[in-house]
Design goal:
The complex is a heterodimer of chains A (167) and B (279). Helices cover 72% and strands 0% of the residues of chain A. Chain A is built from nine helices and no strands. Chain A has helices spanning 3-29, 32-49, 59-78, 86-94, 105-111, 114-125, 130-137, 141-154, 161-166. Chain A is globular and about 45 Å long. Chain A starts with a helix and ends with a helix. Chain B has 279 residues and is α+β, with helices and mostly antiparallel strands. Chain B has two domains: 3-180, Heat Shock Protein 90, CATH 3.30.565.40; 183-267, Actin, Chain A, domain 4 (Alpha-Beta Complex), CATH 3.90.640.20. In chain B, 32% of the residues lie in helices and 26% in strands. Chain B has helices spanning 3-13, 20-28, 41-56, 58-66, 104-127, 190-209, and strands at residues 75-86, 89-99, 135-145, 149-160, 162-173, 178-179, 234-236, 242-246, 259-263. In chain B, the strands form two sheets. A six-stranded mixed β-sheet of chain B has the order 1-2-3-4-5-6. Chain B has a three-stranded antiparallel β-sheet with strand order 7-8-9, covered by helices on one side. The longest helix of chain B has 24 residues, at 104-127. The chains are: A mainly alpha (167), B alpha+beta (279).
Chain lengths: 167, 279
């Protein structure tokens, strides 16, 4: 594989999916300026390790991974990281299934611990397969499934096993 | 899909994309490689001829330079400038020309090469379609001018989604009216090895000091840098140091851009033909 080709594929991958990458970054930091910084920083990181990429066909997933890590690093530095403390989880779990809660649905997603939020975004908004998510998060598929269930439960969204895997 | 999820997805997808995104991406991505520049044969042959004459008899060359008649000033002028735009495609190229050399053969061959190159760029501009979104920019700059030396850097940038930049150098001995090639500076071919080893050390050192820097140097890289081309692009600084220049992608990932290495004179002194240019 010539290094020119890797660069070319990378360039097209970024240009074609830039909106997806931006939205993913935005979903963590919730403001335009920081999201742009994260996209830029992710590209920089990707370029340094591009020569070591194993599977050139999985470049999009590979770049998702970089965006997620960069965003989490950023939040950690800003100390904005929502830790999965028991109190939050209890609070989110105990509420009853109320209809007016829909208004707070977005807030609930944002307040969800990052590990749950990430799988929900990748699975349902970015339409990735469970295997791809497992690859990105470097976890096994069962862990990803468990996190999806738990995350949906915290959002009080009920879903069938079939929907979880196939939708 | 579940209604709540549907609503969340819609909200997620509705996040507006700022117009700055394109700008930031274009700035961060490596420049797309278009094609490698090939030095025209005629010029290389002419260069050999003149440099040989200077090398064979430096005394004669010195003597020639001292012939007491009023010399014209050797300088670089803008020969031609073209600026045009059509269907999403643009060109803005300044063509340099060297004037004042008595050696008209050298002067003409260098200037013809510049004109030829600008013509090619213009043809490329003419041929570009609406969807190519091609922008061509060409400019030149005198990087070194001493009583003896004149180094001209020519920059060509082609932008298509992202850009690709090339640097070409011409260095002439104004007194002896000769074009300098890298080879002509050295006694023998050993220079390739000596310079390459030094560059490798510099690459390693830079990467150790700054994790953001990256060169194709290790075995993991697909085409690690092994040695310079005998005719590698180079110029000589005002304080008589040799600088070796690499195109984008040649020895480093695209984001590093065009990279240059200053070669310490003390490692070259033994193999240099003399200390007229580099010292």
């Amino acid at each position: 594989m010539k290094k020119y080709d890797v660069d070319t594929i990378f360039i097209s991958c970024i240009t074609e999916n830039k909106d997806d990458f931006y939205r993913l970054a935005y979903s963590y930091v919730k403001n335009q300026e920081d999201a742009l910084d994260i996209v830029q920083e992710s590209i920089r990181k990707a370029l340094t390790s591009l020569i070591n990429i194993k599977d050139i066909n999985a470049m999009k997933s590979w770049f998702y991974k970089i965006v997620i890590r960069t965003a989490i690093d950023f939040l950690r530095k800003q100390k904005k990281l929502t830790l999965a403390d028991d109190e939050t989880i209890d609070f989110l779990s105990k509420g009853k299934e109320d209809t007016y809660k829909d208004l707070d649905l977005h807030k609930a997603l944002d307040e969800l611990p990052i590990m749950y939020k990430t799988v929900i975004i990748l699975r349902y908004f970015e339409d990735l397969k469970l295997e791809e998510i497992a690859e990105i998060l470097e976890e096994n598929i069962n862990t990803v499934k468990t996190r999806l269930y738990k995350g949906l439960k915290l959002l009080r969204i009920t879903i069938t096993e079939e929907e979880l895997v196939n939708e | 899909m579940n209604k709540k999820l549907e609503a969340l997805k819609k909200e997620y997808k509705d996040v507006p994309i700022p117009k700055e995104l394109d700008e930031i991406i274009a700035k961060s991505l490596p420049k797309k490689k278009k094609h490698r520049y090939v030095w025209p044969l005629g010029v290389a042959a002419a260069a050999m001829l003149f440099t040989t004459a200077v090398n064979v008899s430096p005394e004669a060359a010195q003597a020639m330079a001292k012939i007491p008649f009023v010399k014209e000033i050797v300088e670089v002028i803008t020969f031609h400038e073209v600026k045009e735009e059509k269907n999403n495609t643009s060109i803005d190229v300044r063509t340099p020309a060297i004037s004042g050399l008595e050696n008209k053969v050298l002067e003409d061959s260098l200037n013809e090469k510049y004109i030829e190159e600008s013509k090619k760029l213009y043809e490329e501009f003419e041929a570009a379609g609406e969807n190519d979104r091609l922008a061509i920019e060409g400019d030149y700059e005198v990087v070194t001018e001493t009583p003896i030396l004149l180094s001209i850097r020519q920059t060509i940038q082609k932008t298509q989604v992202s850009g690709y930049m090339q640097h070409h150098y011409v260095t002439i001995d104004k007194e002896n009216e000769a074009l300098l090639t890298l080879k002509s500076l050295f006694k023998n071919d050993q220079y390739v090895k000596v310079i390459s080893e030094n560059i490798k050390q510099q690459m390693q050192q830079q990467m150790d000091e700054d994790p953001n820097k990256s060169y194709f140097l290790t075995k993991q890289d697909v085409e690690p840098f092994t040695q310079i081309d005998p005719n590698q692009e180079f110029y000589i600084t005002t304080d008589n140091q040799l600088v070796i220049s690499f195109d984008e992608y040649e020895v480093a990932p695209g984001y590093m851009g065009v990279v240059e290495f200053k070669i310490p004179t003390d490692i070259l002194s033994e193999i240099l033909v003399g200390d007229r240019y580099i010292n």
